[in-house]
Amino acid sequence: MYVAGEAGQLFRSADLGDSWELLDSPYYGSFFGLHVDSKNRLWVVGLRGNIFVSDDQGDSFNQIKLPDNVNINSVVDAPNGGVYLVGNAGVIGWVDTAGNIKQMTHSSGAALTDLVAHDDGRLTVVGQRGVLEITDFESESSAQTQE
Predict the structure, then answer these.
(1) pLDDT band at residue 135, thresholds of 50, 70 and 90?
(2) What is the phi/psi pair of residue 16, to 5°?
(3) What long-range pairs does 115-123 form, CB within 8 A, spacing at least 24?
(4) R_g (Cα) of the chain, nearest Å
(5) What was the pLDDT predicted at 80?
(6) What is the pLDDT of residues 26-35, one digit of tens each?
(7) How far apart are CA 85 and CA 70, in angstroms?
(8) Which long-range contacts (CB under 8 A, 24 or more apart) does 124-127 make?
């Protein structure tokens, strides 16, 4: 189990919450979300576009950068591998299993707080403007690809 919070606070429990250890944080600002993906990697996201991934349950982290440095609020598994991330200013990112990054910005410019990635490629995102649908992330993100 993991908990993330303000001032870079990251905690890990190996006994389902009976005890907790403070992890060495890669960043000392606010974290807004974390996720353990299908490959058992720990993703931690937060303020000013800070995104970190750990392959060793939080003992060490590598930083991932999207083109825009906006707050990242949530991360979920992508059905086709990798993860999707959402954040402020309509930012939606995808990091594939090889570490390639794609980003799009939803035309609403809304702060996005969470998403559901559907098997057919659609994304349902929620946030400041309610529930929004993205039908083709690949074509909308192609102009902002970073590898």
Answers:
(1) confident
(2) 55, 35
(3) 115/74, 115/76, 115/84, 115/86, 116/76, 117/76, 117/77, 117/78, 117/79, 117/84, 118/79, 119/79, 121/80, 123/84, 123/92
(4) 15
(5) 86
(6) 999 999 999 9
(7) 11
(8) 125/86, 125/92, 127/73, 127/86
Which helix H or strand E contains 139, and what residues bound it?
Answer: helix 137-141
Predicted TM-score (pTM) of the model is: 0.89
In CATH terms, the superfamily for domain 2-146 is: YVTN repeat-like/Quinoprotein amine dehydrogenase (2.130.10.10)
> How do the domains of the chain map onto residue ranges?
2-146
Q: How many residues belong to the chain?
A: 147
Share of the chain above pLDDT 90, in %: 85
